[in-house]
Specification:
361 residues, eight-stranded mixed sheet, three-stranded antiparallel sheet, 21% helix, globular, Phage Gp37/Gp68 family protein, DUF5131
Length: 361
Amino acid sequence: MSDGTKIEWTDATWNVVNGCSVTSPGCTNCYAMKLAGTRLKNHPSRAGLTQDTKAGPVWTGEVRFNDKVLSDPLRWKRPRMIFVCAHGDLFHENVPDEWIDRVFAVMALCPQHVFQLLTKRPERMCEYLSRRKAGKPVQAPLGDGTLGYHPFNCEVLPPSNVWLGTSVEDQARADERIPHLLATPAAVRWLSCEPLLGPVDLSGLMFRDVECPNWEMEGSQPPVDPETGQQECCSSCDWTGIVGEPAIDWIVAGGESGPGARPMHPDWARALRDQCAAADVPFFFKQWGDWELSLDRERDDPDWRADYSNDYVDRGKSRWLNIEGGRGFHGDRFVVMRRVGKKAAGRLLDGRTHDAMPRRA
């Protein structure tokens, strides 16, 4: 348990399960994987969870339960936002249900805290919670055995102080993971779009389907606005408002930091910000990562009069990102990023911070 953390959107981390597997592009530069294979490689909670490769430490797929920290939240009286399993995935395929039961039992006994749970395996999370909600209460052992067993009431699952989220680094992962998240019983659902490695369009994924009461009179479902992805009321109804409501309660976005960090196009973050604003969903911009915006031609040289042919050349030091003949990340938009490090790059998006959080359920 770490009371205090540099992660901007939480207060503490609770590493009750450690270890994982590389499952998608967002895992390539995983800080927890690198840490487990370097500074913490001899620590009992991390030893043997990674193997050395030419690319550095890589998860082996082994996972480990840390009994010593399981009951820590029970002893914390001051309310905290707690990030669950920052160095692992609670819903990893090698994590048995009994471990998950114990974690949820502790969270249910700590209504003063908010637990922020994040997974790259939302299909397992959905299956587990759906099955536990429909099943009988389980007896989950707490701590090292001195605190006894807690009858975990599955009928009220999940607790309202548990926020369930999934990681989405690009459109492919959004299309794959978000539907599982939306099918999961949850008081609060959220997305971590970090590291953001590509544009993410949440049209059709941001809103729940809410049927218009008169849609059958039209012979089809209410039409969908192509710009917002929201269903609009049918012509048989006097009300012309939106009939959908947000299905995602919070979105965190950020660029990658650390060795080998990949740059984030500013428009990717802006698009998520704007989609959140349109849907009235809280948006939190965590960081730029190691790269900052050095030149946006549409902003800095809208008349295209300057000559950049000899500027922003990467001379082998990886300081500048010189992208394919100055064409930028995509199309004809000329955007150049400069590697300056996380601290220097900061977390201002178009001159302002975005720290919105969901209201506690």
